[in-house]
């Protein structure tokens, strides 16, 4: 038993990146030898990462297959409106190249779609026009209206002979007790689960969820962002009175092939089925936007999205704007935002006044006071609940996708985000930000420090669970 616990402690010492995690597990193994060692091997192993490595030895990663279409210096010059913007874009490009291995591709169009009325309608239009393939990946898919609309559209496509595949997160699919899954399967749609919870080794990873939102049609049109497929995203949707506002994006151009590749890797991971490489001709230019796909998750050995965020914030000249439904900044992210504020960059953070997870809201209150103290502005957006995820760097770079600004998204979940260099899109998103910023209520330092003791105690207790909120 002593040898077993000692070897386990040694494994934790070498394998755990965080000094806190390493010291905690070493201590547990020493104080509770058998229990600590067994718990470590049962709960603290990232088997997802090791399984992904095994699969990649068998099948090549699709991540770098489109390197031949990567943007060149002339593509950046065509988008930049000044030498300063060109320099800034080049800085972010270098970080992206080093952190992801995914190419920055030119010739794309990115169209923002607000809420379910605009987004779902456009999605179903594209699904109805599909000729070859429809690949849909989402975290939550529930509600009678959404199920009926998308179920009918996907069924029609399957009847036309289109390759229709739906990949649902194993835990998210349980929200509606599997109703959506059964409905789609009954209509001839192939549905698979990503990390279905179970009592086996693979199923024990309840914390590692697939939070990505991807839809591709024929490799020509794509959709991504923060929006799930739920009735609460529709005006007349009802879920105990809860209403959700959100922002999604339609994509055209070469970047859609990147979304398709990520979906096929996830499908391969979930099913074990080898996916043949799809050699498509280079997509015709659809717009001027330069886009980089940023898939990230516990299957990677490098936290790509975190470093892209930090690099982008560090490149800001005048302004950083951030929108997130759940805001529990990691130490790295907090440092980047405070450092930007200290060097004179205007840093604005917009979060909901009320969220659906109270403990998360309390933890946020316990963690933002240092940022407020150093000049970061935080405002609380009144309802309906805003589920948008957005980072705007000056007037040229937008970062959009599925990741919240919290440890769960930055370290535990499978996420998909986009870095977009496009002044037109940045202008549209800055206008939306300003529309929501103006009526939002400022969160002040005095409001936090002068709160009753019981509130400050509650908030700080909630903060202890921040890594898993």
Can you lay out the helices and strands and say which pair or pack?
Layout: H1 2-15, H2 19-31, H3 33-43, H4 47-58, H5 73-79, H6 83-100, E1 104-114, H7 115-128, E2 133-138, E3 141-142, H8 144-159, E4 163-169, H9 179-186, E5 190-194, E6 214-217, E7 221-225, E8 229-230, E9 244-245, E10 247-252, H10 255-271, E11 289-296, H11 304-315, E12 319-323, H12 331-342, E13 346-352, H13 358-367, H14 369-373, E14 377-381, E15 385-386, E16 390-393, E17 397-401, H15 407-412, E18 415-421, H16 423-437, E19 441-442, H17 445-449, H18 453-463
Parallel strand pairs: 2-4, 3-8, 4-5, 9-15, 12-13, 13-14
Antiparallel strand pairs: 1-10, 1-11, 2-6, 6-7, 7-10, 11-18, 12-16, 14-19, 16-17, 17-18
Helix pairs in contact: 1-2, 1-3, 2-3, 6-11, 7-8, 11-12, 13-18
Please give a quick description of this structure.
This protein has 469 residues and is an alpha/beta fold. The chain is 44% helix and 20% strand.
Summary keywords:
single chain; Endonuclease, Chain A; 3 domains; membrane; alpha/beta; repeat; 469 residues; globular; 19 strands; cardiolipin synthase activity
Task: Characterise the protein shown here.
The protein has three domains: 1-45; 50-79 and 105-289, Endonuclease, Chain A; 304-468, Endonuclease, Chain A, CATH 3.30.870.10. It is 44% helix and 20% strand. It has 18 helices and 19 strands. The protein has a 15-stranded mixed β-sheet, with helices on both faces. Strands 3-8 form a two-stranded parallel ribbon. A hairpin with a 3-residue loop joins β6 (214-217) and β7 (221-225). The longest helix is centred in the N-terminal third of the chain and has 18 residues, at 83-100. The two termini are 34 Å apart. Pfam families: PLDc_2 (PF13091), PLDc_N (PF13396). Its EC number is 2.7.8.-. It is found in: Cell membrane.
């Amino acid at each position: 038993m002593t040898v077993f616990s000692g070897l386990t402690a040694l494994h934790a010492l070498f394998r755990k990146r965080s000094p806190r995690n390493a010291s905690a597990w070493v201590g547990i193994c020493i104080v509770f030898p058998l229990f600590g060692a067994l718990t470590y091997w049962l709960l603290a192993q990232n088997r997802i990462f090791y399984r992904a490595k095994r699969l990649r030895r068998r099948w090549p990663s699709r991540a770098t297959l489109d390197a031949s279409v990567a943007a060149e210096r002339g593509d950046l010059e065509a988008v930049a409106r000044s030498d300063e913007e060109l320099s800034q874009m080049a800085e972010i490009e270098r970080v992206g190249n080093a952190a992801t291995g995914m190419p920055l591709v030119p010739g794309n169009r990115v169209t923002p779609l607000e809420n379910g009325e605009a987004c779902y309608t456009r999605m179903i239009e594209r699904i109805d026009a599909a000729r070859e393939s429809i690949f849909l990946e989402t975290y939550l898919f529930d509600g009678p209206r959404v199920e009926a609309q998308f179920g009918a559209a996907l069924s029609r496509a399957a009847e036309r002979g289109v390759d229709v595949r739906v990949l649902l997160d194993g835990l998210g699919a349980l929200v509606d007790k599997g109703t959506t899954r059964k409905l789609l399967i009954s209509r001839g749609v192939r549905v698979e689960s990503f990390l279905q919870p179970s009592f086996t080794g693979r199923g024990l990873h309840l914390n590692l969820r697939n939070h990505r939102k991807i839809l591709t049609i024929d490799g020509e049109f794509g959709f991504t962002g923060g929006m799930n497929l739920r009735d609460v995203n529709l005006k007349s949707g009802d879920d105990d009175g809860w209403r959700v506002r959100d922002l999604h994006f339609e994509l055209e151009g070469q970047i859609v092939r990147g979304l398709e590749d990520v979906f096929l890797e996830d499908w391969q991971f979930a099913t074990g089925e080898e996916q043949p490489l799809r050699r498509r001709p280079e997509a015709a230019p659809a717009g001027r936007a330069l886009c980089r796909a940023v898939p990230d998750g516990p299957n990677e050995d490098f936290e790509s999205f975190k470093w892209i965020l930090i690099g982008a914030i560090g490149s800001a000249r005048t302004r950083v704007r951030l929108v997130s439904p759940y805001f529990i900044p990691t130490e790295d992210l907090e440092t980047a935002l405070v450092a930007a504020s200290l060097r004179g960059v205007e840093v604005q953070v917009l979060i909901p006044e009320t969220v659906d997870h109270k403990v998360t809201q309390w933890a946020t209150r316990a963690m933002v006071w240092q940022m407020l103290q150093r000049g970061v502005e935080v405002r609380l957006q009144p309802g309906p609940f805003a589920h948008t995820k957005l980072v705007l760097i000056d007037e040229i770079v937008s970062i959009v996708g599925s990741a919240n600004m919290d440890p769960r998204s930055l370290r535990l979940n499978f996420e998909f985000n986009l870095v977009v260099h496009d002044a037109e899109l940045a202008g549209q998103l800055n206008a939306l930000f300003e529309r929501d910023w103006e009526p939002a209520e400022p969160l002040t330092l005095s409001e936090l420090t002068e709160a009753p003791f019981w509130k400050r105690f509650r908030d700080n207790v909630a903060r202890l669970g921040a890594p898993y909120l």
